[in-house]
C-alpha cells in the first residue's frame, strides 16, 4: 500500500499519464490537460510567495498576463521567434515581480495586498487601454509558432513544453523549499523580526520570493499565449487572481505537492463549473471561504493523515494545531517552525515570541 | 477656467460618494485592523436593493433608500459572522483577507445571477429634472448638487453618531484599545459586528445616492472599492476626516486626469495614487505618523 501510493509513485504516475494524454485523449481533453499543467505552474509560484514567504500579494494574475503579453507582443511587433520572445516575456514578468518586492519591504499585510492589487489593476488597465502596443480590449493573435524541424503541431509542441516546464519547476520548487532558501522564506513568514535576528537578509529573500513567483507566473503566461493562440486582457482579470488563490488554498498553503494537487483539482473544477453553467465567481469564491474557514491547509491534510509518507519537511502547521500526527513521521532534525499569528500580541505566553527554532 | 471649474465641481460631487464609501473602510479598519475586501460589494448590493424597491416594485425613493441601507447593514453583519468573527481569534490576517476576497466574489456572482449578467447595465431614474444649473458661473447638474448635499448630510449624521450615541462611543473605544474596552465590559465581538454593519450601511447609502447619476452593474463594487480605498489610504486609513478629504481629493484628481490627460485616465488615477501613497507616504496625509513594525 505504502509503495503503491507513495509520493514518488504518485508523481511518476501523474506525469506519465499527462505525458501520454495527447496520444489517447481528444483535442478538448488535451487542452484541459495543458491548462492543468499551467495551473500547476501558477499555483506553485504563488505558493512560494504566499504559503512559504507569507507575502500576501495579489498581482499573480498580472504577472501571468505580463508573461503572456510580453511573449505575444515580442512575436507580433518584432517578429521574433517563440524561442526568443518567450524568455523575453518571462524576463519582463520577473523584473516586474521583483519591482513589487520594493513596496513589500515597507508594507506588509493589508497594505501590501492592496498595493499589489492596485498594481494588478494598473496592468490590466494598460492591457485594455494602451491600444497601440497591446491592441486594446479585443486582444490579439500572436503569430503561429514553428516547431520545425520537429514534426509536431503547435498544440503538441506547447503541450510538451508545458509538461517539461511543470515537471522541472515542480522539482525545483521542492528542492528550493527544502534548502536554506525555503527555510529563510518560512522564517520571514513566521516573524520578520525574528528572521532578521537570525541573520536573514529581508531584502534578498523577499525579492527572491517575488522574483520566483514572477518567474513561475511568467513561464505559465508565455506558454498560455502559445497554447491559446490568442492573448486578451480578460484572461488576466480579478477572477483569475481568485482562481490562483483558490488553487493554492485548495491544495494547501505552504505545501509544494499541495500546489500540484491544487492546480490539478482547480482546473478540473473550473471545467466542471463551465460544463454545468454554474457561476464561477460563486463556486470559487465559495470554495475559498469554505477551505480557509474549515480546512485552511487544504486537501493535502487529508492525504497526509492517510499516508504519513506524504509529509513534507516544511509543511505548514496552523498555530495551536500541532498534533502528534503532524510530527509523527518527521525526522527529529526537522526544522519545523510552528507558525504564529501576524500579531505577536495574540501569541499565547507559553510560546516563545518570534517563532520556534528555525 | 470654466472647464477647470466644471471638472472640479464634478470631482467634488463624485468625491463626496467616494468619501462615504471610504468612511466605511476606515471605520472597519480602525476597529478591526482589517480592510473589508467585500466593501465594494456592500455598495453594489445597496444599489441593487434600492433598484429592486424603487424601480421594480415602484416604491418612492426615500423608503427604498432606507430599506436598502437597512438591508446592507444586515449584509455587513453577515460579513462579520462569516469572514471576521470565526477567523479573528485563531487565524492570521492572510486568512481573513482570503475569506473576504472569496466573499466579495460570491456576492458579485449572486448579484449577477439575481439582477442580470455581464454587460447588463441597469438604469435608475433621476431624482429631479436633469436641468443643469448655472451657479456663480459654474455649470453644475442639479442632480449632482442634490447628491452632494445628501452625501454631506450622511457624513454629518455619521459624525454625530460617533460623537453622541452610546453605540458610536463603544465603537470608538473598541477601535482605540480593544483590550481596555473588553476590560471595562464592552462586548467587543458585538461592537465589531455592528461596525461592519454601520460601514456597509454607509456604503449602501452612497450607492443609493449615486444610482441616479450612473448605471448599476455587478462589477461596480470593485471599482468603487478601489477608489474609496485610494481615498482612505490618502487620508491615512485610520483617520475619519482623512477619509473625507481623501474622497474629495480622489474625485477631483480623477476628473482632472480625465479632463487634461486622457479620458481613460479617470479609471486608473486611483490605482496610481494608491501605489504612490503606499510607497512614498504610507501613513497618508492624516495618518498617525507611525506604523506598527512588529
CATH architecture of chain A: Orthogonal Bundle
The number of domains of chain B is: 1
The oligomeric status of these chains comes to heterodimer
Order of helices and strands of chain A: HHHHHHHHHHHHHHH
Helical content of chain B stands at over 70%
Q: Which terms would index this structure?
A:
heterodimer, A: 358 residues, mainly alpha, ABC transporter involved in vitamin B12 uptake, BtuC, globular, disordered C terminus, B: 294 residues, two-stranded antiparallel ribbon, two-stranded antiparallel sheet, 11 helices, 4 strands
Write the layout of secondary structure elements.
The complex is a heterodimer of chains A (358) and B (294).
Chain A: H1 7-24, H2 27-52, H3 60-78, H4 82-106, H5 109-129, H6 131-134, H7 154-178, H8 180-190, H9 192-197, H10 202-228, H11 238-251, H12 256-275, H13 280-294, H14 300-306, H15 324-328
Helix pairs in contact in A: 1-7, 2-7, 2-8, 2-10, 2-11, 2-12, 3-4, 3-5, 3-10, 4-5, 4-10, 7-10, 8-10, 11-12, 11-13
Chain B: H1 2-32, H2 39-56, H3 61-88, H4 93-115, E1 122-123, E2 132-135, E3 138-141, H5 142-164, H6 166-176, H7 178-183, H8 188-210, E4 215-216, H9 220-234, H10 240-261, H11 265-280
Helix pairs in contact in B: 1-5, 1-6, 1-8, 1-9, 1-10, 2-3, 2-4, 2-8, 2-9, 3-4, 3-8, 5-6, 5-8, 6-8, 9-10, 9-11, 10-11
Walk me through what this model shows.
The complex is a heterodimer of chains A (358) and B (294). The radius of gyration of chain A is 20 Å and the shape is globular. Chain A has a single domain, classed as ABC transporter involved in vitamin B12 uptake, BtuC. Chain A is built from 15 helices and no strands. In chain A, 51% of the residues are buried. Chain A is mainly α and 358 residues long. In chain A, helix 3 packs antiparallel against helix 4. Chain B has one domain. Chain B contains eleven helices and four strands, in the order ααααβββααααβααα. Chain B is globular. Chain B is mainly alpha-helical and 294 residues long. Helix content of chain B is 73%, strand content 4%. In chain B, strands 1-4 form a two-stranded antiparallel sheet. In chain B, strands 2-3 form a two-stranded antiparallel sheet.
Amino acid at each position: 500500500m505504502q509503495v503503491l501510493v507513495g509520493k514518488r509513485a504518485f508523481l511518476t504516475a501523474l506525469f506519465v499519464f499527462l505525458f501520454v494524454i495527447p496520444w489517447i485523449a481528444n483535442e478538448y481533453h488535451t487542452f484541459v490537460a495543458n491548462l492543468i499543467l499551467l495551473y500547476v505552474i501558477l499555483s506553485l509560484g504563488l505558493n512560494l510567495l504566499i504559503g512559504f514567504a507569507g507575502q500576501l500579494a495579489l498581482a499573480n494574475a498580472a504577472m501571468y498576463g505580463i508573461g503572456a503579453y510580453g511573449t505575444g507582443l515580442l512575436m507580433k511587433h518584432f517578429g521574433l521567434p517563440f524561442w526568443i520572445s518567450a524568455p523575453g516575456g518571462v524576463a519582463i514578468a520577473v523584473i516586474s515581480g521583483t519591482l513589487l518586492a520594493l513596496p513589500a519591504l515597507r508594507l506588509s499585510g493589508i497594505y501590501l495586498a492592496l498595493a499589489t492589487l492596485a498594481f494588478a489593476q494598473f496592468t490590466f488597465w494598460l492591457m485594455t487601454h494602451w491600444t497601440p502596443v497591446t491592441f486594446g480590449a479585443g486582444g490579439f493573435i500572436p503569430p503561429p509558432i514553428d516547431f520545425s524541424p520537429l514534426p509536431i503541431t503547435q498544440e503538441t509542441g506547447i503541450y510538451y513544453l508545458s509538461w517539461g516546464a511543470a515537471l522541472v519547476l515542480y522539482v525545483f520548487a521542492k528542492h528550493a523549499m527544502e534548502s536554506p532558501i525555503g527555510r529563510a522564506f518560512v522564517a520571514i513568514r513566521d516573524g520578520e523580526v525574528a528572521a532578521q535576528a537570525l541573520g536573514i537578509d529581508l531584502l534578498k529573500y523577499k525579492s527572491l520570493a517575488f522574483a520566483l513567483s514572477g518567474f513561475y507566473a511568467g513561464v505559465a503566461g508565455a506558454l498560455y499565449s502559445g497554447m491559446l493562440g490568442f492573448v486578451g486582457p480578460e484572461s488576466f482579470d480579478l477572477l483569475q487572481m481568485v482562481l490562483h488563490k483558490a488553487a493554492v488554498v485548495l491544495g494547501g498553503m505552504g505545501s509544494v505537492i499541495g500546489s500540484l494537487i491544487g492546480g490539478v483539482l482547480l482546473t478540473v473544477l473550473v471545467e466542471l463549473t463551465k460544463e454545468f453553467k454554474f457561476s464561477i465567481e460563486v463556486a470559487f469564491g465559495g470554495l475559498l471561504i469554505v477551505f480557509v474557514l474549515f480546512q485552511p491547509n487544504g486537501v493535502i491534510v487529508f492525504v497526509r493523515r492517510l499516508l504519513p509518507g506524504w509529509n513534507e519537511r516544511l509543511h505548514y502547521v496552523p498555530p495551536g494545531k500541532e498534533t502528534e500526527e503532524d510530527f509523527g513521521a518527521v525526522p527529529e532534525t526537522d526544522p519545523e517552525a510552528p507558525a504564529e499569528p501576524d500579531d505577536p500580541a495574540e501569541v499565547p505566553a507559553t510560546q516563545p515570541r518570534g517563532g520556534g527554532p528555525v | 477656467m470654466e472647464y477647470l471649474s466644471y471638472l472640479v465641481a464634478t470631482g467634488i460631487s463624485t468625491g463626496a460618494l467616494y468619501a462615504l464609501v471610504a468612511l466605511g473602510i476606515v471605520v472597519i479598519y480602525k476597529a478591526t485592523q482589517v480592510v473589508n475586501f467585500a466593501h465594494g460589494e456592500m455598495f453594489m448590493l445597496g444599489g441593487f436593493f434600492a433598484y429592486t424597491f424603487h424601480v421594480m416594485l415602484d416604491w418612492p425613493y426615500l423608503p427604498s433608500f432606507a430599506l436598502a441601507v437597512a438591508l446592507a447593514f444586515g449584509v455587513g453583519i453577515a460579513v462579520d459572522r462569516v469572514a471576521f468573527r470565526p477567523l479573528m481569534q485563531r487565524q492570521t490576517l492572510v486568512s481573513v483577507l482570503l475569506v473576504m476576497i472569496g466573499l466579495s466574489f460570491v456576492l458579485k456572482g449572486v448579484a449577477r445571477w439575481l439582477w442580470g449578467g455581464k454587460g447588463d447595465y441597469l438604469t435608475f431614474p433621476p431624482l429631479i429634472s436633469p436641468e443643469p444649473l448655472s451657479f456663480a458661473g459654474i455649470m453644475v447638474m442639479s442632480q449632482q448638487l442634490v447628491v452632494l448635499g445628501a452625501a454631506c448630510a450622511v457624513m454629518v449624521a455619521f459624525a454625530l453618531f460617533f460623537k453622541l450615541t452610546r453605540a458610536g462611543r463603544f465603537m470608538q473605544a473598541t477601535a482605540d484599545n480593544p483590550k481596555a474596552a473588553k476590560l471595562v465590559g464592552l462586548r467587543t465581538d458585538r461592537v465589531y459586528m455592528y461596525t461592519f454593519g454601520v460601514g456597509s450601511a454607509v456604503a449602501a447609502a452612497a450607492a443609493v445616492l449615486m444610482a441616479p447619476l450612473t448605471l448599476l452593474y455587478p462589477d461596480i463594487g470593485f471599482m468603487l472599492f478601489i477608489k474609496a480605498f485610494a481615498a482612505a489610504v490618502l487620508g491615512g486609513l485610520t483617520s475619519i476626516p482623512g477619509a473625507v478629504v481623501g474622497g474629495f481629493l480622489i474625485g477631483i484628481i480623477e476628473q482632472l486626469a480625465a479632463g487634461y490627460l486622457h479620458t481613460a485616465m479617470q479609471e486608473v488615477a486611483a490605482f496610481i495614487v494608491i501605489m504612490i501613497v503606499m510607497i512614498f507616504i504610507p501613513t497618508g496625509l492624516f495618518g498617525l505618523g507611525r506604523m506598527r513594525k512588529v
